[in-house]
Structures are given as structure tokens and as C-alpha cells.
Amino acid sequence: MTAADRTPFVLLHALPLDSAMWRAQARELTALGHRVLAVDQRGFGRAPLGSAPPSLDLAADDLAAALDRQGIDRVVLAGCSMGGYTALAFLRRHPGRVRALALLSTRAAADTAEAAARRAGFARAMRDPAARGRLVEATTPALLGATSRTRRPALLRDLLATVRAADPESVAWAQEAIAARPDGLDVLRATDVPALVVAGAEDELVSAAEARATADALPRGRLVVLPGVGHLPPLEAPGEVTRLLTALHRDATAVARTARREP
């Protein structure tokens, strides 16, 4: 196996979940011989939030430091929703470290003023014990597509339990960090690596047009729309996401081998 073949996967989770959302992909990719790092982002899972102001740049630098500690240079990077926004920040701040990119349920454009205001309101409600429970119950189902909600009630129950258990301050911090992110289209235009944009046909949070714009900005971007899937493809279509990531890794390996052979 060559160095390119051994390029690790890094998997970044959605808000307000943690690295466990990638459990199925991590298991299957590891069984195929890949090294997989499913990372808890700041404030989620086992990662402490700390006291720094909200910033996706900080989350990106956390990832770079974690890779440095493990002696990892370049990765196949996959991010879902918030994880995709962290991936964009990582591309901006640490160019050259991504061999291939997968963005799932991610828009490249910055928030509009209206969207940023909604996130600010969400953050305030998460910090209010009287409002928090109602907010979680009202908004969590929209993370899944209508098909998943109807046909997989256990998935919705598990998702609600995970969201209820998330640290409210971490969720608020992340919402504020996402609201402050810059437009990422320029970063994507400069990211000339094999790239995949995955959208759920039933995603109620990121539109089909936004997914298309993200894919079109990537020089080697490809858009895949998954039927019957909402905002969380790794949970709603785990096998298909694993197959897509495996194919992306093959593409990255082929590109690296070709580059080594060229004079």
C-alpha cells in the first residue's frame, strides 16, 4: 500500500451531534483497511468547549493540531453540515492538507443577515432553560427527511435523545460560530482536488440550489443527491455514504499516483 493509499479519512460531525454520527462509516471504512478519524469538535462528545469566543477558525485549528500530534499531513476530509463549515475553514487556514473533500448538507455561501439573526435567536433560546426544551422538540425532526421520519421512527427517537443530551452552551457557541463564517465559494474555487457534494433530496435546511452552487464552485466537484434523505445522510443512508467516500478515496489515490508519474 502506498502513502496515497494510506491517506486517512477525517470525518466531521453535524450540529448538535458528535463523532458517533459517523459510527457506521467508521466501522465499514476501517474494515476496508482505511485509517479513520471521526473527530469530536469543540464542545461536543469528549471535546471540551473552552472559553474562547465562537469561531470556526478555532475548530479548524483544533483539527490541524490534532493531525499534527498524530503525524498526519494530508487527509480525505468529509464534513456534514457544521462539519462541512469547519472543513471550509480548514481549507482556508491550512491549504494543501486535503487530498480529497466531501461536503454533505453544506452550503458554501455565508449566512444572510436574516439567517444569522435566526441563529442568534436559536443561541439565546438554548441558553434559556425555559425555552430550550421546546426548541429542541420543535427543530430536531427537521434534521431528518420526511421519509426517515415516517419509516424510521427509532432513528428520530435516537436523534432526539442525542440532541437533548448536547451541552446547551456548546450548541449556542456553535450556532454563533456558524453565523459568523465568511463566504466559502472562493475557497472552493481554489480547491482543485477530487470533491463530492452530497445532498439529501428531502433536506429542509440546505436547498438543492445551494448544494448545486457548492458543487459548481469546486474545480473537480460532483453533486450526488440521495432520494428519501434529509439533512443527515450518514445516519439516513449510511451504506450509500460509505460507498461514496470509498470511491472518493480511490479517486484521490489515482490522482496522487498520476502526479508521481508525471515528469
From TrEMBL:
One Gene Ontology MF term: hydrolase activity
Entry keywords, A to Z: Hydrolase
Domain AB hydrolase-1: 8-238
Cross-referenced InterPro entries: AB_hydrolase_1 (IPR000073), AB_hydrolase_fold (IPR029058), AB_hydrolase_sf (IPR050266), Epox_hydrolase-like (IPR000639)
Secretion signal span: none
Name of the featured protein: Alpha/beta fold hydrolase
Organism name: Streptomyces cinerochromogenes
